[in-house]
Design brief:
alpha/beta, TIM Barrel, nine-stranded parallel β-sheet, 10 helices, 42% helix
């Protein structure tokens, strides 16, 4: 498979490269992302999620992705997060189409993540100066994204291949892109997956929600990890 060579003199393409470097630098400081999926038809649930995010914001969390939705209230919910949690590096999760790219640009969000590798979608985002981090699983997908110019990718679903999988790809593929492990992981997996060579880890519903975490419904182990994180100050 061949791809159009990147014209780095084009301002949007340069912006695409700059956005990659910026999120990589930020994730090196705090190698963790939280993915949230708001129930936008449930006002009580949405408010509780905002309250949980405020707790995590004050505890030092820096990277949050909001799963994209065509729901009429989605953009308003993201703006609420932007207003009450100004230190978040806010992105969009579960991006699979052009409509989400328009919202990404409208809300001035710096990045998005896709569950899979879609060259046409990543190319469209690149031409707009937007950053989509593609999901990969197979060695072929890892190779193709690197050839396209993607400096960072999401290993998804990570739990299906195990903690040692990514390191095994280095021998046949050579230097690997910056990787975010996502899918099926818990707070207890953070140390093992980061220690095994994954550059960052993304967690979702298992770190926030109704899981016996107390009144705030936030995993106390995550709060403890954030307290020890050097970027939390």
């Amino acid at each position: 498979m061949t791809y159009e060579l990147l014209n780095t003199s084009d301002s949007n393409h340069s912006k695409w490269l700059t956005r990659q470097e910026a999120i990589i630098a930020s994730l090196r400081c705090q190698p963790f992302l939280l993915v949230v999926r708001p129930l936008l038809d449930d006002a009580l649930s949405s408010q509780r999620l905002l309250d949980q995010l405020k707790v995590l914001h004050d505890a030092g969390l820096r990277h949050v992705e909001v799963a994209w939705s065509s729901h009429a209230g989605w953009k308003s919910f993201v703006r609420e997060i932007q207003g009450c949690c100004p230190r978040f590096h806010l992105g969009v999760a579960s991006v699979v189409g052009s409509e989400a790219l328009q919202d990404l640009q409208l809300l001035d969000l710096s990045y998005a993540m896709a569950p899979c590798w879609d060259p046409s979608l990543v190319s469209e985002a690149r031409d707009l100066g937007q950053l989509i981090i593609p999901g990969v699983l197979s060695p072929t997908e890892v190779h193709q994204t690197a050839a396209f110019g993607c400096r960072l990718v999401k290993l998804f679903p990570a739990v299906t291949v195990g903690v040692a999988y990514w390191k095994r790809l280095e021998a046949p593929l050579g230097p690997l892109p910056f990787v975010v492990a996502a899918g099926g992981l818990t707070t207890n997996d953070l140390s093992d997956w980061l220690g095994a060579g994954h550059d960052a880890v993304a967690l979702g519903r298992r770190a926030i929600g109704d899981h016996g975490f107390g009144d705030q419904c936030v995993d106390p182990a995550l709060l403890g990890w954030l307290t020890r994180s050097p970027s939390s100050a």
